[in-house]
Each structure stands twice: as C-alpha cells, then as structure tokens.
Amino acid sequence: MNTLWYFENVNVFNLLCPHKFKEYKACHSFFNYKKNDYVYFESDVAKKVYLIEKGKIKIGYYTEEGTEVISAILSKGELFGEKAILGEENRREFAQSIDNATSICPISVDVMHDMMRNNKTFSLKIYKFLGFRIKKLERRLQLLLFKDIKTRLLEFLHELCEQYGHECDKTGDKVIEHPYTQKDIASLIGTSRPTLNSIMNELKEAKIIEFNRKEIRILQKTA
After folding, report:
1. Residue 23: predicted pLDDT
2. According to the CATH classification, is domain 147-218 in 1.10.10.10?
3. What single DSSP character describes residue 190?
C-alpha cells in the first residue's frame, strides 16, 4: 500500500481563520462532524478550504481496485483542501473525520483569495505554507519509495517527536504523547499493523524506544 504522511509545526488555524479578521468575523461558522463522517468525497466540486479547530481528519483516495490509500491524518490547527486555492476544480481525494468531536472552519476560495489580495503579508504566508507542504510531501514520497519500513518508522517518530514530544527531566528521554493509534501509524508509513507491531517490539528490545497506547518514549542512549 502506498501512503504519504505530513505534519506541520505551526497552528495554521490561528493564522488563517476568518474569525481573526474583523471584516469576516460575523459571516463565518464552524461545522461539527462525528467519527466516519465525510467532509467531502472524491470528484466533489472544490470551492472551500478547511481549518481544523479540534479533532482529526483523514485524507485519502481509493484505487481502481477499491483499496483505500491514506495520504495524511491531520489534527488541530491544520489545513486541508488547500489545492482549491491553486485552482483545483474537483477533489482528487476524500476527507473524513476519524474523531467523534471534530470541529472545522470552512473558508470559501473567494474569501481566501480576497484576504490574499488585501494583505500581501498574509498572501506570502499562504504561498510559503503551500510550498512547504509540497516539499514535505516530496520528501516523504522519496522515503516511501526508497527506504525500508524501519527507516520510515524512525523518520515518522522523529517528526512525531517534533510535534508532540518533550524531554523528560530525569532521564533525558524524548516522550511523545500523541493522538494516533497503531492502525493510524501503520497506514501513514505504508505497512500493516502486525508488521508495525513487530518492528516496534524489535526497537523496544534494542532499547531504542518504549511505548504504550498513548505514549512513545525515545530512550536516551547511555555509554
């Protein structure tokens, strides 16, 4: 199964939400979704971009054989559907809530373009964000095509640590308190759950990591 994953170290919601702009504050709203609800389907008209206030969204598509391919799992503060800004007319992917309490702020493409025209600094930030995301996706694709599963997992843990990790004062270990299930992680690095579990146990035996359902600990190497 071919998949991609990406994470951003910035709360895009705080940057882009129309609620932060006086002229749009009264005319925007939030939509709520439960687990398995779709925000949009493949081939839907692309007229909006979306900001996640809370919850998690899965981005993906289906192959001709009906196999689901996950391209990203996004959480609070992140943006999706952004290709509409660049002129995409119909969706090439689906967006689905995987949380029972997901809240999203939709922004019409017209409003987004209006904000970009009226604020050059804002416009520059948008284009930098889009360029940054494209570069990260390209790097992930290279990993998936040319690296083994263990390397992909270690790279994933490194980025997960940057987003959710903190250092333990007593041991110096990196503690990652993350929102992902093993199924999520397996999908995002392009492997099966049993294979992921096997590799994580191998890393545990090698004293590289410790883990439970809600936490992964990258152990500090000792002499």
Report:
1. 56
2. yes
3. T
